[in-house]
Write a structure and sequence with these properties.
With 81 residues, the chain is an alpha+beta fold. The chain has helices at 29-48, 65-68, 71-80; strands spanning 9-13, 53-57. It has one domain (9-80). Strand 1, helix 1 and strand 2 (53-57) form a beta-alpha-beta unit.
């Protein structure tokens, strides 16, 4: 990031599904792996550029179309609510 401005901010929107235990996210290995990779990249970026505000956030597990179509989502909802 050699051309960054002073006090820059970079934000990544990640996925709440990376917080879900493995048995409930079976079938999402490629998706969750890519989200973990982005999270780790942002952790390293924050360490390498202390003058930049680096943030990775996720909206949480919700009722998005992908999850609502998945049978494990229904089971997960019964466990967390």
């Amino acid at each position: 990031m050699p051309s960054r401005k002073p006090d820059s901010t970079i934000i990544s929107v990640n996925a709440g599904s990376i917080q879900v235990p493995g048995p409930f996210s079976a079938g999402f290995s490629a998706y969750n792996s890519s989200k973990f990779a982005v999270l780790k990249m942002f952790e390293i970026l924050a360490a390498e550029t202390p003058d930049v505000h680096v943030m990775s956030m996720h909206p949480g597990v919700g009722t998005c179309r992908i999850w609502s179509l998945h049978n494990r989502f229904r089971l997960l909802l019964t466990l967390i609510t």
